Every structure is written in structure tokens, then in C-alpha cells.
């Protein structure tokens, strides 16, 4: 039996693309695939983040376990065998015989944890205050924005140092090393909320005059429900961009505070602490103790910053 020829007016069934294919063909990923800077930055960030997360599996040594350290391995140059133990280390060792490669992986965990936690804290505070200021208005908006303006007159690192010193002063001496990381997160987070609040407040002023907000008021929605379920989802795009850029700034702020000796304790060294330790041996010839942590911090902060710049352009409808 032969098939009857189809009429020209017969509709042709078109296979609907899968959800994964729709995501792959989206404008966002299309712009991402056409940007070599974004792809390289994303690859570097993912490599460093995964290396930090899986540091216990990747690091050849546990640099903070005294039972695994050998002082005879101290100051071993990169790739050379130690003259006493004949052990070889890829990036050399520091003054205590710790493998520099392992200390970088473990130190990067502290830097990334502090950076992510501080940005999350700043986002929560900034978004909350920005929504309240933009939606409520009046004296509430005036007080919040004036506090933000006053804080902007001071450098963020000085504000972080002030908050860190005050919080550490209220911490009992026996718990200071244990609470140092959390105090550091609090200091950086409280010094970075202003940018989120200003952006969210401006976006809220635009959104609250739109028809969907007026409709939500007419059906009896509470102000809290309107801010949370209607306005907040529409102001998250610029917040995501600021959060990405703020992550790089938070990592640099943590490294700066740790380098100055008011950040991560020596028992939980971050990249900034490792750089401070290596700086003391730079002019004695042990250059690798300072160089490799510095390169890691530079690569991490630069990649996150470049990724944030691309994200800002990709989510800006005026540039499409």
C-alpha cells in the first residue's frame, strides 16, 4: 500500500525542543559563548572554587596537622629536592616545612567562605533596607538613606576595621581565635550593604508605581507580601551583578585585613595571612612563599571581577 501524498495545506508536526535545548539557545548563554573573557573568567573561577572545596582530596599534605610537618623540609625551593629529606614539593615549602600548594588550597577555602558569607550578609541587610526605604518612603527612607550616605563617606576597609575592632573587643579573649572568622564576616558584610540598599531602593521606587503593584493593593495584599512576592523578584537582576562584583571586593577586603594582622588568625590562615607570612621572607630569598599565594589571590579576584563586568553588560537591556 502506498502512502497518500500530503496536501500542501497539511500542517507539519514540529518537534518541540527540550528544556535543556531551550536553555542552551537562550540569549544569556548565547552572549556567554560569544565572550572569550567571560568563558575564561568562569573557567578560572570554577577551577579555583572546586580546588578549594575539594582541598582535602587534592592537597598532598594537610598543612595544619602538626603530625605531618617536618621542620627539616623548611624553605625548600619549588620543584627541588630537599637537601636533608630528599622530599620534593611542587610550589616549595614555607619556614615551617608546610607545602605551599596545600596551604594555598586550604587558605583559599577561608577566603572564599568569608567572601561568600560577607556578600550574603550584605545582600540580606541591603535588600531589606532598600525595599523598606523605597516602598514605605517618608522618614523611614530618609533615615536609611542618610545613614547609607554617611557610611559612603568613609572607605569600606576603614569601616570594616572599625567594626572588626569593636566586635573583637566584645568577644572574650579565650574565644577570639575561634570567632575571628565570624567577626571578619560581620565586619565586611556591614561595610558593604550600602550598594545593595541604594540600588534596590531605586528599583523599588520604579516598580511600586506599576500596575501590578496597584492591583496587588486592591486585592488586599499586605505591604510585606507585596515587597516580598511582587517587587523583590523584579529587582534581583541588578542585585546579582552587584553581588558578583562585591564578591571580588570582599575577598580583597578579607585579604587586606588579614595582611594587616586583624583578620584570619594564624591557626586558620587565609590567602591574606599567607601573603603576610611570605612578605617577611621576600628579601631573604624565599620568594615563592609570597609569590604563589599572591598570584592565586590576583587570579581569583580578577576573574570574579571580569565575570561581574560581563554579567552587568549581559543583563543590561540597553546594550542588547
TrEMBL record:
<keyword id="KW-0813">Transport</keyword>
<dbReference type="InterPro" id="IPR025966">
    <property type="entry name" value="OppC_N"/>
</dbReference>
<dbReference type="InterPro" id="IPR000515">
    <property type="entry name" value="MetI-like"/>
</dbReference>
<feature type="transmembrane region" description="Helical">
    <location>
        <begin position="179"/>
        <end position="200"/>
    </location>
</feature>
<feature type="transmembrane region" description="Helical">
    <location>
        <begin position="148"/>
        <end position="167"/>
    </location>
</feature>
<keyword id="KW-0472">Membrane</keyword>
<dbReference type="Pfam" id="PF12911">
    <property type="entry name" value="OppC_N"/>
</dbReference>
<dbReference type="GO" id="GO:0005886">
    <property type="term" value="C:plasma membrane"/>
</dbReference>
<protein>
    <submittedName>
        <fullName>Glutathione transport system permease protein GsiD</fullName>
    </submittedName>
</protein>
<dbReference type="InterPro" id="IPR035906">
    <property type="entry name" value="MetI-like_sf"/>
</dbReference>
<dbReference type="GO" id="GO:0055085">
    <property type="term" value="P:transmembrane transport"/>
</dbReference>
<feature type="domain" description="ABC transmembrane type-1">
    <location>
        <begin position="108"/>
        <end position="308"/>
    </location>
</feature>
<feature type="transmembrane region" description="Helical">
    <location>
        <begin position="231"/>
        <end position="253"/>
    </location>
</feature>
<keyword id="KW-1003">Cell membrane</keyword>
<feature type="transmembrane region" description="Helical">
    <location>
        <begin position="287"/>
        <end position="311"/>
    </location>
</feature>
<dbReference type="Pfam" id="PF00528">
    <property type="entry name" value="BPD_transp_1"/>
</dbReference>
<feature type="transmembrane region" description="Helical">
    <location>
        <begin position="37"/>
        <end position="59"/>
    </location>
</feature>
<keyword id="KW-0812">Transmembrane</keyword>
<dbReference type="InterPro" id="IPR050366">
    <property type="entry name" value="BP-dependent_transpt_permease"/>
</dbReference>
<feature type="transmembrane region" description="Helical">
    <location>
        <begin position="110"/>
        <end position="136"/>
    </location>
</feature>
<keyword id="KW-1133">Transmembrane helix</keyword>
<comment type="similarity">
    <text>Belongs to the binding-protein-dependent transport system permease family.</text>
</comment>
